[in-house]
């Protein structure tokens, strides 16, 4: 693949997405339009696919390549393990504490069904992200630079892509310095690209990545941390941890970095 085409994709998806996120999260449109920005990477990737070789075959393979059982097991349990590790480290270090009032709600069939239903409801929008990042960008960069560099670049683009929405969410929520929070969150997202690369290259199918992405997002928001009601943040979640938001993001980044070292060993 032409090197310039990959970088043109990166510049295009960032610029279009930043403008879209600003419009959606600055209150210029009703809140029910917020999720539309997640489809931008897929739409742009689709255009780039159509101008490449064998576009129909390449796109079909992203959804039809056989996936082993391990792909689905990893997709379900890795985000739970990662966020569980965050919770344990937070308690051990004193940066957070368990919220005992949350247990009765979190460990009930009603909440489990609600969590599963909301994760499934997110999959179309998350597919919009994964189709762009793991469906197009990661394989294109891997052909040029190998899995490790491709993962780092894809992670950085993925993190930078969130800047407007993260900044405006944190600014409106009053959770702390929005610049600091956005910076830490971007780093955490970039580090989080490693398990997605590992999962994608198990089969070359993006559907397990979509599932893992959905489970991570809803588990982090509804189970790990109690988020105050604000545009773009979940409302009414009990939260397993009571922790200052910057500490939570920092622990997600730190534990993710440790796990990334082990995952990167498989990229060879």
TrEMBL record:
Residues 116-217 form the CAAX prenyl protease 2/Lysostaphin resistance protein A-like domain. The keyword Transmembrane applies. GO terms for biological process: CAAX-box protein maturation. One of its GO terms (molecular function) is endopeptidase activity. InterPro entries: MmRce1-like (IPR042150), Rce1/LyrA-like_dom (IPR003675). It holds the Pfam family Rce1-like. Keywords: Membrane, Transmembrane, Transmembrane helix. The chain crosses the membrane at residues 7-28, 34-51, 72-95, 107-127, 148-167, 179-207, 219-237, 243-264. This is CAAX prenyl protease 2/Lysostaphin resistance protein A-like domain-containing protein. It comes from candidate division WOR-1 bacterium RIFOXYC12_FULL_54_18.
